[in-house]
Amino acid sequence: MKIGITCYPTYGGSGAVATELGLDLAELGHEIHFISYAQPFRLEHFRERIFFHEVEMDHYPLFEHPPYSLALAVAIHDAARNQGLDLVHVHYAIPHATSAWVAEEMLKGERDLKIVTTLHGTDITLVGLHPSFQAITQFSILQSHGLTAVSEFLKERTVEDFAVPGDRIRVIPNFIDPRIFRRDKEPCHRATLAPEGEKILMHISNFRPVKRIPDVVEVFARIDREVPSRLIMVGDGPERPRGMEKAQELGVSDKVLFLGKHQSVDELLACADLFLLPSKNESFGLAALEALACGTPVIASNTGGLPEVIVPGETGFLHPLGAVEEMAESGISLLKDQDRWTRFSKAARADAVERFSNDRIVPMYEDLYRFVVNGA
Ligand code: GMT
């Protein structure tokens, strides 16, 4: 098939999933056309059957807010027409599902462009609920020929808050490539990240308030008092200063390393002993899955779709939102018992590969594409 993929190209789970999906689909023989304002961040190397169409934006002085949604609609329209796309798969509803619908309308009578929309998180749980977006989000979702949500939790939210019939949404969870996310990565950066004898705790995100960055630092500080450790903070965003302040306040600044954005998180996760994700809400938690696949147990909040990813007591621990003391206690108990940690690490890897490997999940998207294009 010829498939267009639209996503946010910057660091973030939905862009990562969209890019990995495109790469896997190309390997399976499909022709993939990424359509976005910049090259997706995990799309570094040349790959056969992968194309990139940049959305052109002219900054006319009249536009205080340049209409990206319209420029994207034109780019999808042009790619569909010139490349003969069978469908366009948009990741994150706002504004991608709307732009795809405009492109479909523009092509009416000339060619039939099918739209698949994958709902990822705040497009449903936060941004999409805002009065300025709710109606258009609902309309655009309902116009899509295929709809997926990355967790049961997100499907339920979409049904409840956007009155989308449940049978229109397929839950297709996020996935990992077990060849990339694994424990035995070479070279291992352990020695560079922490002195010998110290454990490595890690957090990866876009540092938005929903990630509760101060909680990450607080859990770390409590663990460090009992088990000497380092905290490696990967990514960047508005909450980075608050995280740094918290580290200062708790006297652990010299043990917290803010690495900034990183392309190959697999190299870092393979050295971590514990991954922390105490988010306020997380429709799936791709970073947690990537950690588990690298054999790194996860301590997270019991919110959103995280219980669908982490098996408490086997691959990690789930605690109520903000329960930093309980989170730290779980971390300490695991890090102090090497045999137990090894059991968790092996179970984390095994469960991630069994339930979420690309070999299992990507065919679910292919199946949906066939259904949408051929009606069977
Ligand atoms: O929804 C967002 O906030 C953005 C999005 C992203 O691009 O990072 O994150 C969501 O999609 C990821 C990929 O499906 C999920 O792993 C994240 O849990 C989800 N974020 C939230 O629900 C906050």
Tags for this model:
binds ligand GMT; six-stranded parallel beta sheet; 13 strands; 376 residues; seven-stranded parallel beta sheet; Rossmann fold; 2 domains; 14 helices; alpha/beta
Describe the fold and architecture:
It is a single chain. The protein has helices at 13-27, 68-83, 96-107, 122-125, 134-143, 152-162, 190-193, 213-226, 240-249, 265-269, 286-293, 324-336, 338-356, 358-374, and strands at 2-6, 31-36, 50-54, 87-91, 114-119, 146-149, 169-171, 199-204, 229-234, 256-260, 274-277, 298-301, 316-319. It is an alpha/beta fold. It folds into two domains: 2-175 and 357-374, Rossmann fold (3-Layer(aba) Sandwich); 190-356, Rossmann fold (3-Layer(aba) Sandwich), CATH 3.40.50.2000. The strands form two sheets. Strands 3-2-1-4-5-6-7 form a seven-stranded parallel sheet, sandwiched between helices. The longest helix has 19 residues, at 338-356. It binds ligand GMT. Residues 8, 12-15, 17, 120-123, 150, 174, 210, 281-286 line the site of ligand GMT. Ligand GMT binds at residues 8, 12-15, 17, 120-123, 150, 174, 210, 281-286.
